[in-house]
Every structure is written in C-alpha cells, then in structure tokens.
Fold these 3 entries.
Entry 1:
Amino acid sequence: MADKLFSIRNYFFLGSYQSCIGEALKFQSKNEEEKQEKDVYLYRAYIAQGQAFIPLKEIPATTKSADLAAVRRYAEFRNNPAAKKKILAEIQEDVASKNIKSEIAAVLAATILNESNLSEDAFRAVSRFDGLEARASKVFTLIKMNKRKLAIGEVKKMNQIDEDATLSQLANALVTSFGAAGKVKDALYIYSEMADKYGRTTDLEMHQAVVSVLTQDYAAAEELLEAALERDSKDADVLINSLVAAQLNDKDDEVVERLISQLKHEHPNHPWVIDYTNKEDEFDRIVV
C-alpha cells in the first residue's frame, strides 16, 4: 500500500521545508488520521521557517489531538520568549510523570529540552518510544551528550526497522561524523548520496560542511555554506557554521562581525546568541 505522506515527511526530515509545505497544501484525503499527520508536518515546517505564528493561529488551544497540542506548544515556545520558562516546567513535569501521550509529542518535547540544553531530560522524553523519529531524536541527543557508543546502538535498531529510510541514513551519517578520523568522510558520502537522490537542501549542505570542517577541508566547508545561505540566508545553524568557517579560513574580522550581528538581529533568542551575549557582558564587566 502506497504511503501517501511519504513526500511530506521526507521533505521535512531533509530540511526542505518549503517543499514540505507545498506538498502538504496539495494533499487531499478523507482519512482523518492522514489529514492530522499532514497538519503535524505542515505546521512543524512553518515553525522551522520561523513562522510559528501560523500554527498558533490555526491550531485551537483546546485541540484534543496530542500531536497537534504538542506542535502548538512548540510554536509558542519558539514564538513567545516570555512563555519559555513555563513551557519548560510543564514539559519537565510531563517527562517526570511519564505523561507524554504520543511519539510526536515526545519528539517535540525532546526538541524543546535540547534547545534548552537539558539533554538528559530530552533523552528521558523519548526513551519510551520506538519509532524511527523517536530513535532519531535519541541518536541526536546522545551525540549531544557525547555518548556515541549508545547512539550507535540506537542507529543499529533503526537499521533493523528500515536501513534505507531517510531518518536511518541521516542517523548513520551523524554518528559517523563524530567517529574515528578515517571514517568521517563516509558521512560525507551519505549526505552527498541523499542530495543526489532527493535534491540539495540547506540542512544537507550544512551537514556536509560540518563534515568538511572535521576533515579540515575548510575551503569546501565555506563553499557549501555559501550555497546553503543562498537557499536560506537567515538559517541560524548555517550562520553559526559560516562564522566558524570564516574564522578557519582566516577571513577578515569584518566578515565575522557581520555574521555575529546578523545572528543577534535575526535570532536574539537562539541559545548560541544568548550564550555569546552573556560572555560579551561578562567580559565587559571584567574589563570595567
């Protein structure tokens, strides 16, 4: 039986958010579960594009769908800095009481917790769920926690479910990127094959650039990041990695300062920007 939602999900996993939105807006079905799943990825794509106000406007606060409620909470977390502390407390309580009702809700809870540098809580959020997206979230979280061996174990389980799935391939590439030096280039091959198969995306080019940095091919990293910025000039992760590449390629200080200024302007609530600003303030206090 054909998977009607494959393209929508796949575009989302690859970071091709506008394509995901385009496919979702064309999608038609009489099946309520399919329509709801379509909405989940549609609204997550809007959030990823910095348009969290759309799901906040369109998903009722009283929705009975655990998945859509989780999407709405994530949209509020991204859209309303004043609500972050309250949302974090709610999620931590849900994790502690094992009150997360669906895999999507668990993945989004882990996303919020990871963005808040609470990786142990993030892992607990998805620990009870065994689908590919939950396992991919576990892999990302374990790598963030510097627990690569455990991440490899999760990747093996993903491969047993479907080794050709996009999420399995991306998880394989991620753990390979942070493996033995001689194997790191294998991750580049995986990302390149996916780009050839599904088309280049901002996310794929950024991950290729990260691997290029790890293999000390700084010129290739810069070229890939320039291509990624042409696709999305405001992507926070691409801007941060562009800043790193600029420093590694001995670019003028003006280039680095311009990227920092753009990050501060476009993403004032991003964890990297908050950390950088706090360090700037601390330095200023020491100097004074």
Entry 2:
Amino acid sequence: MLPAPLLRPLRTQCLRRTYAISVAEPKQHPDKRLPRTFSADKQYHYNICTRLLASSLSTPLVFLQHTDFSAPRMIKLRRDITDAARNHTKRQRAMAGLPPLTPTSPEMQDAENQDPTLRAIRTGILGAALRDFEGVDKPSIERMTSSLRGPIAILSLPTFNPPQLSAILRTLEKTVPPKPPKTPDQLKKELDLKNADPATPGRRMKRVREERTPELKVVGVVVEGRVFLKEGGGVREVAGLETLGTLRAQIVGMLSAPAGQLAALLGEASGGRVARTLDGFRKSLEEAQEEEGKKDVEA
C-alpha cells in the first residue's frame, strides 16, 4: 500500500482565465428573450463604458492591456499618471509666464477636476458597449480588439492635449518598463527545476509563490470616432500633434501672411519709392504679357 502522502491527488497548475472582446453581433438563441435584461451591476458597468465611448468624440481614450497588477500597484500607476499630467500643466504655465498654482487657488481645484482617469473595464461588457455605440469605426475596433486577451483598462483625458498625452505615455514607459525576454540559460534553468526530483521523496513539495512582474501595453487610442493603433505608429502620431491653441495660431498666421506682405510693400513704397515701386510693377506686367505672346506664337 502506498504511503498516505502519495494517496493525495496531485495538485495541478492553476490556469488564469482570460476574456476576449467580441464586437461581432451575438447569436440569437431561441430560448433567450430579446431584448436582454441585465442585472444592476452589469447595467452600471455598461453605462460607464457607454459614457467613456461618448466622450471619445471630443477627448482621447487610451486602451491599455495590463497583466499581474496588484491593487497597490494599480493605485501607484494612477498616482504617477496624475503627477505626469499636473507636472505638464506646471511647465506649460511657466512657459506662458503665468504664476504657479497654489493649493487654495480656484484654478488648482479646476486642474484637479481635469485629471486623467484610469479605469479597469470588464471586457465582456466593453464588447457589448462597442457593438451598440455608433460613433466609432467598427472595422478598426475589431482589428484592435482581435488580439486582446486578459484585463483591459481605459485612460480618459479631460481635453485633447497631445503634449500632455505624450508626457503620460513617457511616464507609463518609465513606470512599467517592458519585460525583457528570457535568455536561453533562464529557460533551461526553469525546465531543469521543473523536471528535477523532489528533495524529500514521499512528501508534498513546498509551494513557492511565483514572483510576477506587472506588464502594461498601450494598444491604441480612440479619438473623434477614429482608431489609432500602436502597431502602425498611430499612437505616436496623435501624441506628436500640436495643441488646439497652437494650431489656431498657425492658421491665423497663414491667413494674416498676405496682409502682412501687402503692408510691408506699402511701407517700402512710401515717400520717394512710390515711383520705383510702380515702375517695377509695370515692368513685371509687361514681361508677363510678352511671355504669353511668345507662347501664343509658338502654338
């Protein structure tokens, strides 16, 4: 008869359950009532996803895939994102010559209300919200979510501020650096340890908790109904854009350039330069007419 420790069932490795996001239309079973009724908890999360997707029409949403994040580690990640956004605001105010914000100033309270928000999302409910939401490009969403497995988080920004988004992305890379691939020696060592005989035969091996390293992957950005994937460099393109204020200033400069050139021309033509300026215009018109006449003759 085998010893008592060997009669116990062998402990198998626990597999983590992963979920996929399905944007395709669900199958209609004959036994299911339509429309489906959800519980209060699922309806609450569905409304959150719907509001987030509706906000993407004016502000960007960053889709993140996270793995092996504990609750304290997720809290620290949220704090790092908030600090990166506030530090960017401080630098912008310093460059504009504005005074720094104080804890008691009303502008500081407004800045706190406009901090980015990182929210963990239930993948199944997110898929249902994406199916029902009409303001997003469905084929691009399917390409983005086809390879996603596991927990998903969405980072929502209060305004469309590409430099702030770029600062947050740099902070994410520093806070959660990518995990380096395992070397052949490490893989061989793990395999030998797995296949090694127990030190004390007949006894249950001591359970050793595996040290997991958190991983964070930026999947894509959704803004104004368009999807920008990281694989094609779309995320960097969005983060490399200028702010709306800078773009408006560039447009105003382009529109005011002809008026400025005319004003400079009139300034040069003032006084005794009027005759020379008009004579130069006359000569340029005559040369243009002569060139047109030559072209007509050749034709």
Entry 3:
Amino acid sequence: EATMRVTVFLVLVLTMTACIGTDLVDIPLGPAPSAAVIEESELSLIKGDSYTLSYKLIATDGSEVAAEWEWSCRNLTIADVSQEGTVIAYEPGQAWVDGVANGSFHDSVLVTVAENPDAIASVTIEGDTTNMMAGDTRQLTVVLRNVSGDVLTGDVSWQSNDPDIASIDDNGLVSAVTDGKTTIVATSDNISSVPFEIIVGSSNVTRTGMFSGRNGYNAMGTAILETIEDQTILAFGGDFVTQSGPGLYVYLSPNAENVTGGLSLGELNSTSGAQAYELPGGADPGQYDYVIIYCQPFGVLFAVAPLE
C-alpha cells in the first residue's frame, strides 16, 4: 500500500510539472495534423437526393490521421448535412457546407441543388494560371454542366471581388491592376462557381518576427516565413532558442493566444539554432500572423513570434 501511494504521488508530480521548461522528456505523439481535406470542392444534387462526402485529416508527413469531425451548412433552406458528412438536398439553390476536424482544421464544399436533371448544376471557371503582373490580361472560360455532367450552354456573368486589384469584363477577360489577391466568380442562371483566385504581382513574400516566451518560459530569436513561387518555408535563425519541454510542436496560427485554426508543421526539430519547416501544398500562409512553439500534450504556449 505504501508503494502504491508513492507511485500515485510520483505520477501526480510528473503530470503537474510536465511543461515546466526544464523537463527533457520527449513524448512521441506521431505525425502532427496539418490540413482538413474534403475531396469534393463542389457537389451537385437534385432536390431530395443525398450524398456522403469523402474527407480526411492529413498529417505533416502526408499520412491520414484519426479525427473527430463537426459539420454544418450555411443555408438550411437549401440543404443540410449530418455529423457523418451526408449532405441532404432540400430546395433549389446553393449553400456552403463546412467540415471542421478536431476543432481546428477547416475545409468546405459548395453544394448546388438543381431544380431538375436538365438544369445548370455546376459552373466551373477554367484558366491557364492564377498569377499575373500588373498590366497583364488573362482570358478565363467557363463550363456549364447538369448533375449528370453533360455540358450545357447559357448566359454567363462575371464578377471580381476586388476590381481595384483585378477587373473582369463581360467576356471573361481579366485585367490585372495592382499587386494583391482577389477572386473571380462566374454565374449562370443564378448558379455560381467556386471562387477562382487571382494573384497580381510577385508571389514571393517574406515576413519576419521575433520570438518571446509565454507562460513563464524563455524564448528568443528570429522566425522567417518566406514564399517563393509555390513553396513556403518557415525558417528559424541561428539566434533561436527556447526552453525544453515534452511534445513541443511548431504552429502557424491566426492569433497569438492559442493554435485554434492554426497549421501544425510538426515537432520542433531543436530547442536552439537554425532550422526549417516546409508548409504543405495548398496551405495559404497569408491566413497566419503568428509562429507558436506549443507544448501539445498539455496545451501550453512556450513561445510566440508575430509575423510582419
């Protein structure tokens, strides 16, 4: 009995002091989640039909990891979705369905409920590239289909979310105006496309920040988030140092207080010195304003670097 009391006491002490900054224990957690993926970017149904989406949570090494998903629909008049990811079509129109994996990783699908089998159920924008320089023009085209995938014809209207960055005329000709990002949407018979992103100017972007400790932990050094063409790398300078702890992970986050909605880049390679982490394909670095060193087993922030 005395041995049991000692064992329980030691377990409690180890649990309570696991993230004190001097603990060198490394808890193997496996690949860290990085992105939620719904296989279907858009879905076309007839009123009364249902369809179960294909979805997964991807880790930094490309493997699939177990996840708890929560589902919601932004317009319950048009459609709904079960917590198993089954979409039910109610009335003609369009609605976005959102899936959130493990409370942090989000993806969405545009659901179109067609009035009948012959009606337009899909509007797809096609173009050579999304990258342009100011003064360039680019011709976009559109393909209209019914729920069976048959190509249809119809009038199409075009709209730019920010004409000051890139405008578009009635024939789908995009004119780049100034550096920035915008989206183009094509609409036919009240059915709209998934937004088509246009990037004007150099796609090479560099943002930097300096680490500082959080929750009583010490950290310092430089973080550099650099995008060159289609590849983004997060690099720590040779001046980087942070206290040790169990299960330390590197996150990009939209806020400085937690990693909710953030992107995990995997385990921290080292508590000091230069190191680099590649963002997975499809990740948008513009969504994140902070680099966070995070004690994942206990949900504790060790360090934060605001990106500017």
